[in-house]
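Suppose a colleague, Dr. K., hands you the sequence of a protein chain of 131 amino acids and asks what its three-dimensional shape might be. Before reaching for any lab equipment, you can write down a predicted structure in token form. Begin with the sequence itself:
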Amino acid sequence: MTQTPESLAVSPGDRVTINCKASSSVSYYMAWYQQKSGQAPKRLIHSASTRPSGVPDRFSFSGSGTDFTFTISRVEADDAGDYYCQQGQSFPLTVMQTNTKTFVLFLLFGVTAVSHPLPEQASVCQILGNF
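The predicted structure, expressed as tokens, is then:
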């Protein structure tokens, strides 16, 4: 699994697009997760295009085969967090490439980039906003 981009800087109302590419077809078995700081991951969707109740309609999901997209049409402060794609076609249920790195930390009066190695199956895309 390859997920892009690794990080996004957003402002309220922005449109956010996260892409996930599988090395071979996973049909429509692509789940997306949201993880907020200090919390367990929350599954947003279990297959490519079916949004469960309770997930905001600002969130949309599309794709099949090898290419998938997650979009937030109008991002809000509460959307800040890490987002994961996970294929569910075959075991192991791959989350991402290993050893992905790079976080971008946004401060009130400046921007500091922080890079360090992450453990396997750590976050790939982090959305942070200076709200």
